[in-house]
Design a protein that fits this description.
Length: about 190
């Protein structure tokens, strides 16, 4: 976001006087006119969660020790970090994630429909051809419809081969019947 992350930075001496600072007026405003209070008199680094004008921020107070690691406390540093920018970033990322979820869901649905259609169309063609075959229709049109409707999938190819095989069997049966009929007619004439 465009909001500064560091709202203020104040350095206090042991007596609570501001030695240096950045955005002192902002600090006075955000801390309700009191830059140095009991919150600052801490012995260990401390983080306070606060709110100013509907903006959440962290008020971080760190004690400053003397030179050479002396344990005597010489002052404090008070740092205000605004969460407004973080909130804006979270909202922006949430919006992007939501958009991504919607797009991916849409692509998933589209892919599922495409896959269903890719499977359903050949199955319908095979089913229709099987019904025609069951009724005795072994014509080349039935065979062409199977090949066209299934797009050359293995089951469609096998069904097409079955039609050719059945057509050959029917043709042989017809030829055999003609031959049997001729033989019967010959026998009947001989008797």
């Amino acid at each position: 976001g465009s909001e500064q992350a560091v709202a203020y930075l104040l350095v206090f001496d042991k007596g609570g006087t501001v030695l240096t600072g950045a955005n002192e007026l902002v600090a006075q405003s955000m801390l309700k006119g009191v830059a140095f209070d009991q919150d600052v008199r801490v012995n260990v680094p401390t983080v306070f969660s606060k709110e100013y004008d509907s903006i959440k921020f962290y008020d971080i107070v760190v004690p400053v020790q003397g030179k050479n690691g002396l344990s005597e406390q010489t002052g404090w540093v008070r740092l205000g970090i605004s969460l407004k920018g973080v909130d804006e970033e979270i909202r922006e990322w949430f919006g992007k994630m939501l958009l991504m979820i919607v797009v991916l869901t849409g692509l998933g649905v589209w892919g599922a429909l495409l896959l269903t259609r890719t499977i359903e169309t050949p199955l319908e063609a095979i089913s229709a051809a099987a019904q025609r075959i069951a009724r005795g229709d072994l014509s080349e049109k039935t065979q062409q419809d199977v090949q066209t409707g299934t797009g050359g999938i293995v089951v469609g190819e096998r069904l097409s081969q079955m039609i050719l095989g059945l057509r050959a069997i029917v043709q042989r049966l017809q030829e055999d019947l003609v031959q049997v009929g001729g033989t019967l007619q010959g026998l009947m004439e001989a008797t």
